[in-house]
Protein 1
Amino acid sequence: MSVKKTIASVIVVIAALFTLSIAEAASPLEKWAASIKSKYDGTAIRVLGIPHPASDALRALTPEFEKATGIKVNWELVGSGDIMSKQFLGQTAKDVPYDVYMTKGVYLPAYETRHVLADLRGFLNNSALTPPGYDYEDITLAYREGLGVFRGKVRGIPIAGESFFISYRKDLFDKYGKSPPNTTEELLELAKFFQNKEPGLYGISMRAETGRTFALAWDLFTSGFGGSIIDQKTWEVKVNTPETLASLKYFLELLQYAPPDIETFSWNSAISAFTSGKTAMWYDATSLQPWIDDPKKSKVVGKVAYVPPPRAPKGRFGPVGGWDLSVPSLAKNKEAGWAYIAWMTSRAKAKELIDAGGIPARFSTLNDPDYIAKNPNFVKALKEALKASGNLISIGQRWIPATPEGKKIHKIAGYYGGQALLKKMTPEEAVKAAEPELLELSKKIKATKF
């Protein structure tokens, strides 16, 4: 054999060994992605979502998914108030051009009655479609069960689970020698203290838009005062009780120390007021925290600290809310759509998703020393907020009642509560006026076999 042939043979062997070593070095997720590519290379899927830190992070990681799997991903964003109607209309018309939905986890009962979403359990149990080490049980229980599962069926994978907590301007609190609020009484006192303390500064920012949004914010306080708009164990109406009235009066007083147009504030208006430096405190969703630390969106980066929901007379309670990724029941590319969800929500990608501004949903993330070290105060407050959420579930209440009529409950209560905010009714008149409509709705809920 000539020297040239010998060298060529050696090169071939070395190249083969190098290729083999690369294949052996590939991670389980990469190997799984390669198998997905062999089946779905060239497939195009569509995702319907909303503007959110979670969707920002998902889109940031999408090019890597596309390269690994050969699946092209096209995102479409609509307003959070419009997405459900768009999803429901598509289902009714049997015309669903999407393969992945962002879905409101707290409204799974409404999705269920319309058969909008596929059951993901079969995908989760299919090793060919779900990457090894996915670890579904690692997703925090409050999010996994509170947002993604309804009546034993997995309808979504949480990607923006949230409770509520208080963000406060640590620089201002330090400047004036104030400690962060631990109780509802302290929260009110601090909001009053900071109102107009400096030019253009207000005490607190919250969502309080008249209508359903108002009731969602009001319900942050009802259980803490021993009341409820409606008892979710018996479906008895409790809006016109002394305890529920007390919670409404407290909420209305707190809003006196918010910006003057607070009756128009949705969640995005509320956080914008805080990140622009207009308020000393912000009481809203934990999932929005990445925007507070984003220099492109926030003027208060590095000036903010966090505490859990305030302890009220009857205890410390918090909601569980947020968004899932789901597969539409009428999707044309269900398996490719699930592959996108499985990749993005896998344990292997959790750290990258958080680094891109995503929302922690896994126990392993919340307990990761590296993650904790980045912002110990935030992680501590987040864990305590989740405990407060567990307290609410433990008394048989959910932030969004587990009935298809849940949205209507808040719409009715929020309309009349909003009238009190606008000073068109007294708080007493508002709860009294809401009661008859809620009683009619209660009868409907009790009569249904859903």
Note: The CA atoms of residues 45 and 73 lie 5 Å apart.
Protein 2
Amino acid sequence: MDLAIELSGVNYDIRTGFLLKKKSIVKDFSLGIAKGVSMGLIGPNGAGKTTTIKLCAGILRPTTGAALLHGKPVWKSGERKKVGLLTENQ
């Protein structure tokens, strides 16, 4: 299957608070979306949906794991210029 977007074992962590404690936003997430397929992410507030979409679009880099767009790392891919993204905040 020819995948347009592939996330493999992706984790995304941030540092928060005065002591900069690590907080996991996305934990060990894998996903493959074939070319020509439309999909959506649903879940409760704070589940990591917007963060996952930002990882797919190359706005954020995963702490660990791989985010690929047409088989290339999304933050390096020229294909990223073809991706449009509008999120609720920022």
Note: The helical segments are 49-57.
Protein 3
Amino acid sequence: MKSLSDQTRFKIVGMLLTRDFCVGGLARTLDISEAAVSQHLKLLKDVGLVNGEKHGYFTHYQVERGVLEGLANALLGMTEVDRTLYGECQPRARETCRLCNSNE
């Protein structure tokens, strides 16, 4: 999640969902240096969101769609959490709230 919080990395992933790109293509499209793109891709590769495939002299990058789908499903699952599980915290009644006074 943290790797996608950066606007440039988010754009890179969005672009790679449409087609494969090399570093130069991403740099020209985003109007940033190839070195900056490489750093962003390294981070995305380290967390498993993208991979690269060598084509001659160039490496073309693509999104690991399964990883992205897993992340999307995890986020979707968070929306289905039962909000009544812990009850309601009553800000004006902190002394009687079992959540605020929990020693756990």
Note: Strands lie at 50-55, 58-63.
